[in-house]
Amino acid sequence: xxxxxxxxxxxxxxxxxxxxxxxxxxxxxxxxxxxxxxxxxxxxxxxxxxxxxxxxxxxxxxxxxxxxxxxxxxxxxxxxxxxxxxxxxxxxxxxxxxxxxxxxxxxxxxxxxxxxxxxxxxxxxxxxxxxxxxxxxxxxxxxxxxxxxxxxxxxxxxxxxxxxxxxxxxxxxxxxxxxxxxxxxxxxxxxxxxxxxxxxxxxxxxxxxxxxxxxxxxxxxxxxxxxxxxxxxxxxxxxxxxxxxxxxxxxxxxxxxxxxxxxxxxxxxxxxxxxxxxxxxxxxxxxxxxxxxxxxxxxxxxxxxxxxxxxxxxxxxxxxxxxxxxxxxxxxxxxxxxxxxxxxxxxxxxxxxxxxxxxxxxxxxxxxxxxxxxxxxxxxxxxxxxxxxxxxxxxxxxxxxxxxxxxxxxxxxxxxxxxxxxx
Length: 423
Prior knowledge:
Residues 9-64 form the HTH cro/C1-type domain. One of its GO terms (molecular function) is DNA binding. The chain is mainly alpha-helical and 423 residues long. The chain has helices at 6-17, 21-27, 32-39, 47-57, 62-70, 76-80, 82-99, 102-119, 126-140, 148-165, 171-194, 198-215, 218-232, 239-253, 257-273, 277-292, 296-300, 309-323, 326-338, 345-361, 365-378, 381-384, 387-397, 408-421.
């Protein structure tokens, strides 16, 4: 702990616990901006806030010790001003709400807040755009990690609020707000897919693409279309339609690597599923070329919009798994698992589904099915029902030969998936 700042410790704890800015802010409760500033050491805090964060994160008074070491307790309220009183008041109110009927109180409070926002409505400004860009950033780091059922009402409420702001904004702020709307609509689509509602997700993808087009940012428009193509691989979308969507994304992106990378990834995987393995290999080669040109900040971004080496290993694993190339598939899976973060349970689980599929495709059907069953049984029930994990598992099971489909090991894996999907 020696020499670390409060913000450094908080960021480390949040990463270790797999909790995002907005999720932590909900538990405090406080404004997400407060947590963001604490993470960046851009504001002071109070003893009450340090204690509350320690309690939520289970950090054995680590943050409290840092608070006392850096600011002390005597002048804490003076140094932090009225904001700390507000944080303490919010904390008390949050604890009271948790003790009573948190759900209904939250809904009632949201109605009151919306009425007030309408009453004092003013033209949106660049400051509003700054705020909403932070909101979109936070969501991009939560979708796919936090429970989808908890995120869905929050995404919907925030999108509704953002929609009310856009018409009143002057042009520079308006374009920025529409850009945020495109991101949140896309994240809504991803979250709906995680919940198993692919039809609603398609409508949100259309909204996201239209919004991105209005900004004039061709890279963003391509990125959203490409991500839609990738996520549609976990729905019943015909794979030829996925390829068409991927090619549209590549065309819209005009060669921007960050814009077109998802399109190339979707194309390689769709060809692989169709059994068009030469075309899948060519698409994978194209993807590798695009990956080499990605800016470093895109490769290191762990949000929904980043494209790390792990994603490249994932696509490589999938293409070789479908083709029955056991050794290259296993090598790609090992490489993917080696770079997987501690909180990357979904990514890790999907790679293990690939491993099961590689064994099944290579003819070791029982071992592949048993591997899948072991991995699924180790997952908590709510993770086992995740639609991306389920999609990877179902694709791997389909790699069994026609004469193998009735084997008891495969049937056991199917029943486990069905029981999780019915939850």
